[in-house]
Design a protein that fits this description.
With 134 residues, this protein is mostly helical. The protein is 85% helix and 0% strand. The chain is elongated. Helix 2 packs antiparallel against helix 4. It starts with a helix and ends with a helix.
């Protein structure tokens, strides 16, 4: 799952960079919130999560890890598309779409945080526990 998440994050990186490039060409920075969230929650956060899942394969195989990945990757595009249309069309009717996407993303991230705090252990420590019979 780690490598797939890193690849997904690279797509977000490309989208974020293209959006930033577009804004600088047209000298309009209204979409800065979309650009920033795509780069932070898409590129950076998912890359780091992917690296953690890659480094700790047992950690990535849990239901919590899968739930995090799905919620994050459903919520973020929904939130960004809603925010894009809210800004471009200057229409607050997209607020519930942004809120729904943000809620899914936040729940996914909080599940990830909980999972790390509760279940992330070094591979050596995990092997020692198994070998000691504890």
């Amino acid at each position: 799952m780690g490598i797939k998440l890193i690849k997904i994050s690279a797509v977000y990186f490309g989208i974020g960079i293209i959006l930033g490039y577009y804004m600088s060409i047209v000298h309009s920075y209204a979409l800065t919130p979309v650009h920033v969230h795509i780069n932070l929650l898409g590129w950076t956060s998912l890359t780091l999560a992917g690296l953690i899942y890659y480094l700790f394969p047992a950690f990535s195989e849990s239901k919590l890890a899968k739930l995090h990945v799905w919620l994050h990757n459903i919520g973020l595009p929904v939130m960004m598309i809603g925010l894009f249309f809210m800004i471009v069309l200057e229409n607050q009717a997209f607020t519930p779409v942004v809120a729904a996407g943000a809620t899914l993303t936040a729940i996914g991230v909080l599940i990830f945080v909980y999972h790390i705090l509760k279940n992330l252990k070094s591979e050596r420590k995990a092997k020692k526990v198994v070998n000691d019979g504890c």
